[in-house]
Design goal:
Helix content: 40-55%
Largest sheet: 7 strands, antiparallel
Order of helices and strands: HHHHHHEEHEEHEHHHHEEEEEEEH
CATH class of the largest domain: Mainly Alpha
CATH topology of the largest domain: Serine Threonine Protein Phosphatase 5, Tetratricopeptide repeat
Number of helices: 13
Shape: elongated
Amino acid sequence: MKFMGDYPSRQTHSSVEVTDQIFVAAIKEEVLRDEIYCQIMKQLTENRNRYSVTKGWQLLWLCTGLFPPSKSLLKHAQKFIETRQKEPLALECKRRIQTVMRSGSRKWAPHPVEVEAILQNNTKISHKICFPNETVQTFDVGTNTKNRTLCQNIASKLQLSSWEGFSLFVKIADKVISQNEADYFFDSLRQLTDWTKRNKPVKDGATMSIAYEVYFMRKLWLNVTPGKDLKADSIFHYHQELPKYLRGYHNCSRDEAVQLAGLIYKVRFNKDRTQLATIPKILKELVPDNLLRAISPDEWKKSITAAYSKHEGKTVDEAKIAFLKIIYRWPTFGSAFFEVKQTSEPNFPEIVLIAINKQGVSLIHQKTKEILTVYPFNKISNWSSGSTFFHMTIGNLVRGSRILCETSLGYKMDDLLTSYVHLLMNAVNKQKSLPA
């Protein structure tokens, strides 16, 4: 009644606060779901107030996207909707019940984006998706769209050869969190924003909106060969690998750094030679951190100018692929890097780089970039993480050795390791099920 405007309230509540009061309990307790359907239908029966009726159908639209009525109520709910075909949302509500019966109930109350959309009578919701090359596109996202479906739609629209290894990520403040492909898109968003609200102190009475961005990026680098999927190389691989390269995480020679800097310049400035004079000022954007002082800025400028001249005839996309082809030769290509403090291996430095890639988990000397050891996935028997740590067991659970790390990014390491192991196990199971 509050949502439909039939129950005057002294306090002003946001629409999401009211929809939460209606749906949160019913999502947790299945027995309450029919009650919600019955109350909405009751409020809509013989209701002469047009404003109230419009809001009631908007509420039913939200409800039909969250969970279906029980078997015993289903035919009555369908009959109720079918006898009101003149209502603009009736057909849509009927279709949504079928969809939610097929794909399963939602786990979270409607996200503010969904509530806002239906209040504007929009049943088609568009959401912005950001890409690593700093472009943004909007995609249709239904209340019953799963992350997997959205990933497939994005890959298809961008003409990628496959969406395997890609994932949706949500960026909130300084955290970038990968989304489970089996979850509903709006459920995973709601879960994250609610979690952020719970962990953020808020002044009394203030309603807090959480700013977030959704990214689509490569997460797992299993079948990536530069030049094989030109769209993926140009939009994702180059732009995801470049920042890691410039942070100095790879073991890279000075000659390679010069060649790569020439290609980075080409990608950034294309045919514009006037920027060559500024190379000493923008060295950080061309050369890895750890090599900046290897020679003087003027020497870098001379070498990079010569390297750029060699690549001048290439297109920007060809330069991106040439860059990827050089770093592809390194064992650390396609890695996610984590700087951690390790407390378990006395023979290794206290601060090490951990690289997680298709080979497994590598420990790398932070200064020399030498790979100290590699733990293949099939040797890792267990792992766990918390807000300040990441732990991993190598070999037998009883007699194996443990790697103990202090890091605030344990959640990311845990998620990556789990995702790689799942993908590799699926690949093995597929091979086993193939006819001999």
